[in-house]
Specification:
This protein has six helices and 20 strands. With 308 residues, it is mainly beta. The protein has two domains: 216 residues, Sandwich (Jelly Rolls); 78 residues, Jelly Rolls, CATH 2.60.120. The strands form five sheets. A seven-stranded antiparallel beta sheet has the order 2-3-5-12-7-10-14, with no helix packed on it. Strands 15, 16, 17, 18, 19 and 20 form a six-stranded antiparallel beta sheet that branches. The chain has a three-stranded antiparallel beta sheet with strand order 9-8-11, with no helix packed on it.
Length: 308
């Protein structure tokens, strides 16, 4: 099976920024979220390869399960968030809650910071200890005083587990990889209104239902790491590895597809039967039946693989 090229799916939120459009040398139309790999009922990429013309990624998964997926059962989601303003304060549910209440999977997600303003930060966690306290400070509009802010810069990586309070801050371009879910509970939005003067919907009850205070908060600073291969996360659902490429790096797929994300430099990806370029910010879906590939050039890539 050939390397899979996909047409991005765009979203146009009120906090959108144009950094990704500049990197990709394309006209910016107000998009702030770009999903490059998605086979979800709500987000589903069109396959660009001529040999798979007319198929969506979800259809491709169903048509070629052995060649594309092999041992994997879930296609990960991968894309970018490009924020000029802070995102809303959010929480994602786990599988059990999401399946029961939203007919969807729960969401675990990871961010890799591709670009960040000097004062950029993210919100992860709260200094409060009970749901009752969180509800009280939401009601009296003082919740911002109890949210934990963390400075971030280029190359930082963090995984957000279900139940974790979080928000991407302004001036950040982040790559996101996650489980195949589109469930987000927005429980605080800084009292913002849209162009028509309307506030966005909040999901306070569901947010409080799934809120957890015991999730680990760990930011990995990778910018100055020189190791060739760094495992950034290896959770129950997926694995993300950072590869510092200087020459040629060989990778065995072990019967699982891989999403290759170029986060620095100009690179090529080779297999026994084909070779393709991979520009900064591009995502390439490599089918499981490729067995082995190599990445050639000088730069950095993320390799994301499903474990379920």
């Amino acid at each position: 099976m050939k390397f899979i090229r996909l047409k991005p799916v765009y979203e146009y939120p009120l906090w959108a920024k144009n950094d990704l459009a500049l990197i990709r040398n394309k006209k910016w139309d107000g998009e702030g979220a770009t999903w490059d790999v998605a086979a979800h009922k709500d987000l589903n990429n069109e396959v660009l390869n001529p040999e798979y013309e007319g198929l969506s990624l979800k259809e491709l998964v169903l048509k070629y399960p052995d060649e594309l997926m092999k041992d994997a059962k879930m296609m990960l989601k991968a894309g970018y968030i490009d924020a000029s303003k802070p995102l809303s304060i959010q929480i994602h549910p786990d599988d059990e809650y999401a399946l029961k209440n939203d007919n969807d999977l729960g969401k675990t997600e990871s961010w890799y910071i591709l670009k960040a303003d000097e004062d950029a930060s993210i919100i992860v966690g709260t200094s409060l200890n009970t749901k009752q306290e969180v509800k009280k400070h939401l009601e009296d509009n003082t919740i911002e005083d109890y949210l934990l802010s963390h400075k971030v810069s280029e190359g930082d990586f963090i995984t957000l587990h279900p139940g974790t309070i979080h928000s991407l801050g302004k001036g950040i371009l982040a790559f996101e990889v996650s489980t195949n879910s589109n469930v987000t509970y927005r429980f605080y939005d800084f009292n913002r209104v849209d162009a028509n003067g309307n506030k966005r919907e909040l999901h306070i009850d569901k947010s409080l239902d799934v809120l957890r205070f015991d999730n680990e908060i760990k930011i990995t600073h990778t910018k100055d790491m020189n190791e060739q291969c760094v495992v950034l996360d290896d959770n129950d659902f997926y694995r993300v590895v950072l590869i510092n490429v200087d020459g040629e790096y060989y990778y065995d797929l072990n019967d699982r597809y891989v999403i290759i994300t170029n986060v620095k430099g100009q690179l090529n990806v080779k297999a026994s039967d084909e070779e393709t370029s991979l520009s900064l910010s591009e995502n390439l879906l490599v089918p499981a039946d490729k067995k082995q590939i190599s990445i050639v050039g000088k730069g950095k890539v993320l390799l994301s693989t499903s474990k379920v």
